């Protein structure tokens, strides 16, 4: 595609409609966007004629939203592209781990091929960035990392990515420290971990090792924390303390954080304040079958929160379709956010915090200078997009149409 062109007749949000002191809808306008070198260079009212002779692509009054960001997936685990299989029951997490170790190497399809199937789904649903965890353990070595990196390279022009070196079988339990360090040297940018108490059996040693590896490798941390109740909260408190001591504020995330969902309101508020002080983000898949972190409280306390899809048709779960708008809608529904403003602001949990409108109604996106990463949808506003999961018409990444046709 040309480095400079016009995206014409784009529907943009411009404010909330207020009636009787209540947000009753969203005001929109049609605009032309000049895209240059992957960024938005100019925004004109659609009433103005374009006379510069540059190429034009007609958005046909489809709504533009910031493109979506997947903060928690497992490209190396998916069974997409292979035959259907339901989940085999397992009594413990360790049984499930062993089952996965047997199933994945036995598949006729390669990890790269299956990962590409999932990446294709993400791109079609409007995703332009993924954070993927990649299993690192002695039997697999860095094979999964290599396969996932090959898959990501085939999508370099469609989305950006980051990789978590994930010692799923236990950082200490499988003595995976050396492999994780090597994974960082070979392109991973975050240190993973899982349940320092339940899986590794030593909260202090496991957390210290994760932090040490991250500091040594100039990396971030993304910890899978399923441990519930007080055990989960204690682990979070210790990680928050260690994060501050190591100067890793803003580089650490906790995925799942079920203990926050189990906490009393007072406990959750205190924990949220600690997380905010440490700059630790929370990532949730909005599970249906258990309590999840109180996202509204976390947001009010200044904690960065993201929603991710997690498992998509794999040994752990037969469900999932890579649609982050569906996950956002699930979050809004579970949280009781059914009014226009709440639905619209929910979009920020799947876009890295970007929403077309500020909660007070001023336009925040798009702005001149923004990277031209957007998705065009068949919806009248963000609130409708979150509630109704509309068709994605086109996905744009760095100014290029990477999915759909205009």
From TrEMBL:
Residues 176-402 form the Amidohydrolase domain. It comes from Cohnella nanjingensis. It holds the Pfam family Amidohydro_3. One of its GO terms (molecular function) is deaminase activity. This is Amidohydrolase family protein. InterPro entries: Amidohydro_3 (IPR013108), Metal-dep_hydrolase_composite (IPR011059), Metal_Hydrolase (IPR032466), Metallo-hydrolase_Enzymes (IPR052349). The keyword Hydrolase applies. It comes from the Bacteria. PANTHER family: BLL3847 PROTEIN, CYTOSINE DEAMINASE. Keywords: Hydrolase, Metal-binding.
């Amino acid at each position: 595609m040309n480095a400079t062109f016009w995206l014409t007749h784009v529907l943009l949000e411009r404010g909330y409609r207020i009636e009787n002191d209540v947000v009753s809808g969203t005001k929109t306008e049609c605009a032309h966007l000049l895209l240059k070198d992957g960024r938005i260079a100019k925004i004109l009212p659609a009433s103005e004629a374009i006379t510069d002779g540059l190429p034009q692509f007609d958005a046909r009054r489809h709504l533009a939203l910031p493109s979506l960001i997947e903060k928690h997936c497992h490209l190396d685990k998916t069974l997409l592209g292979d035959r259907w299989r339901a989940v085999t029951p397992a009594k413990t997490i360790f049984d499930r781990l062993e089952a996965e170790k047997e199933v994945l190497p036995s598949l006729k399809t390669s990890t790269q091929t299956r990962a590409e199937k999932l990446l294709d789904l993400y791109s079609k649903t409007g995703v332009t960035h993924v954070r993927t965890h990649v299993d690192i353990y002695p039997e697999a070595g860095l094979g999964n990392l290599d396969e996932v990196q090959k898959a990501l390279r085939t999508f370099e022009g469609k989305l950006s990515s980051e990789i978590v070196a994930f010692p799923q079988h236990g950082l200490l339990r499988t003595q995976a420290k050396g492999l994780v360090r090597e994974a960082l040297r070979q392109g991973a940018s975050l240190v993973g971990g899982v349940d320092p108490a339940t899986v590794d059996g030593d909260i202090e040693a496991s957390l210290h090792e994760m932090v040490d590896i991250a500091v040594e490798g100039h990396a971030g941390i993304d910890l899978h924390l399923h441990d519930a109740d007080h055990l989960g909260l204690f682990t979070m408190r210790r990680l928050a303390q260690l994060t501050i001591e190591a100067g890793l504020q803003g580089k650490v995330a906790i995925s799942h954080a079920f203990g926050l969902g189990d906490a009393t309101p007072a406990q959750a508020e205190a924990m949220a304040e600690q997380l905010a002080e440490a700059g630790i983000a929370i990532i949730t898949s909005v599970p249906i079958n258990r309590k999840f972190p109180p996202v509204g409280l976390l947001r009010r306390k200044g904690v960065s929160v993201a929603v991710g899809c997690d498992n998509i048709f794999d040994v752990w779960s037969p469900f999932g379709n890579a649609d982050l708008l569906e996950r956002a809608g699930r979050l809004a529904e579970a949280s009781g956010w059914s009014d226009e403003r709440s639905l619209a602001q929910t979009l920020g949990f799947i876009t890295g915090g970007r929403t077309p409108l500020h909660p007070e109604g001023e336009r925040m996106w798009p702005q001149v200078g923004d990277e031209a990463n957007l998705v065009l949808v068949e919806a009248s506003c963000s609130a409708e997009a979150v509630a109704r999961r509309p068709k994605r018409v086109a996905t744009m990444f760095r100014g290029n149409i990477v999915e759909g046709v205009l």
